[in-house]
């Protein structure tokens, strides 16, 4: 490692967890809001969070105790596994609203891991960071699910199991609108409404939707995506927690959306469209749905094949990985992230 590689910074993008039909299994990155982590090596064999900033409401209340912070816990897990002869000092700039359903807690830990990884004497391939990201995410959500951290690590749409990451092909024409209202819905509360049992016939129907959805991505078939992008399990139980949800979803469908549902645990709402032009046309109407319910909101238009977490300029670059994104990968095989770009927002 270069003698200058004592500090590194990285951003991680927001994400749409679940993508409606894939609870705790599917997710995709979006361009727009992001968290940034600044990490430096320190002599003490510990993880120290020095500051948490940004203009996000509530950022000052995020714990500085590493074990109680998603980014800190991820770096603690990394140190425990690798035992490097140094520790990490961390600063976080929050850009993703808390309790938004956009993966804000996941983004902090992924950004921190990508930056810290660049400071290792032998940086790990990207998928090898996945279990540490799951450790960090569990601090916030109470469970180890990869539907947010996985697409942040790999970019685009990803299928995430407890041990495997699969980058799903997302055609270039496929775009998302994600609308974030001025509401806060804590992940633990949104998960609490899911405890009741589910009838077998709903599970079977859901399986048919999921199969069509994944096959639609593989084939680049908008009609299969339209048939599959339907959440009959989680959305009906969470919709009541999000004032304005029905208006926003209907606005998306009225503008030709392939499907629309709740982003992650909410309150953000997403919809998929078969072109960027269609997404841009729908975004103001979807935002208006929340405005009509009494909540200001911001809409983001992004390709579904959005970028992964990325080192920022002046950070040391790990050696590039030559493996294909569009394949199933077990730890520790790796993949490298593309260069950053800026998302587009409305409102």
Q: Can you lay out the helices and strands and say which pair or pack?
A:
Blueprint: E1 7-17, E2 26-42, E3 47-54, H1 70-82, E4 87-94, H2 104-118, H3 130-141, H4 149-154, E5 157-160, E6 164-168, E7 175-181, H5 187-192, H6 200-219, H7 222-228, H8 235-238, H9 245-254, E8 259-262, E9 269-273, H10 276-292, E10 297-303, E11 310-311, E12 328-330, E13 344-346
Parallel strand pairs: 3-4
Antiparallel strand pairs: 1-2, 1-11, 2-4, 2-5, 5-6, 6-12, 7-9, 7-10, 8-9, 10-13
Summed up, what is this model?
By secondary structure, this protein is α+β, with helices and mostly antiparallel strands. It has ten helices and 13 strands.
Task: Supply database-style keywords.
2 domains, Alpha-Beta Plaits, eight-stranded mixed sheet, single chain, Ribosomal Protein S5, domain 2, 32% helix
Explain this structure:
The protein is of the alpha+beta class. Helices cover 32% and strands 24% of the residues. It folds into two domains: 7-168, 2-Layer Sandwich (Ribosomal Protein S5, domain 2); 175-303, Alpha-Beta Plaits (2-Layer Sandwich). The strands form two sheets. Strands 1, 2, 3, 4, 5, 6, 11 and 12 form an eight-stranded mixed beta sheet that branches. Strands 8-9-7-10-13 form a five-stranded antiparallel beta sheet, with helices on both faces. A hairpin with a 3-residue loop joins strand 5 and strand 6. Mean pLDDT is 89; it is low at 319-343.
């Amino acid at each position: 490692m270069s003698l200058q590689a004592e500090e590194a910074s990285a951003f991680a993008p927001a994400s749409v967890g679940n993508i409606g039909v894939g609870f705790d299994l599917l997710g995709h990155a979006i361009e727009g809001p992001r968290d940034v982590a600044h990490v430096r090596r320190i002599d003490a064999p510990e993880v120290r969070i020095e500051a948490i900033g940004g203009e996000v409401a509530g950022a000052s209340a995020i714990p500085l105790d590493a074990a109680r912070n998603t980014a800190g816990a991820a770096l603690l897990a990394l140190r425990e596994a690798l035992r490097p002869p140094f520790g990490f000092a961390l600063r976080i700039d929050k850009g993703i609203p808390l309790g938004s359903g956009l993966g804000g807690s996941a983004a902090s830990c992924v950004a921190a891991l990508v930056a810290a990884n660049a400071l290792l004497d032998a940086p790990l391939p990207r998928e090898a960071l996945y279990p540490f990201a799951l450790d960090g995410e569990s601090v916030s959500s109470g469970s180890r699910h990869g539907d947010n951290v996985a697409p942040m690590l790999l970019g685009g749409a990803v299928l995430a199991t407890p041990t495997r990451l699969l980058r799903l092909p997302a055609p270039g024409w496929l775009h998302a609108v994600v609308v974030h209202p001025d509401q806060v819905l804590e992940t633990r509360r949104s998960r609490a409404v899911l405890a009741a049992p589910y009838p077998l016939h709903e599970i079977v129907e859901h399986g048919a939707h999921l199969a069509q959805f994944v096959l639609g991505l593989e084939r680049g078939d908008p009609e299969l995506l339209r048939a599959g992008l339907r959440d009959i399990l989680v959305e009906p139980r969470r919709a009541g927690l999000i004032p304005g949800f029905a208006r926003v979803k209907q606005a998306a469908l009225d503008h030709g959306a392939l499907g629309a549902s709740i982003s992650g645990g909410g309150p953000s709402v997403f919809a998929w469209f078969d072109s960027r032009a269609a997404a841009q046309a729908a975004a103001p109407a979807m935002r208006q749905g929340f405005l009509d319910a009494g909540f200001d909101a911001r809409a983001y238009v992004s390709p579904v094949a959005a970028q992964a977490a990325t080192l920022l300029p002046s950070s040391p670059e790990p050696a590039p990985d030559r493996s294909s994104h569009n394949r199933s990968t077990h730890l520790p095989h790796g993949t490298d992230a593309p260069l950053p770009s800026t998302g587009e927002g409305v409102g």
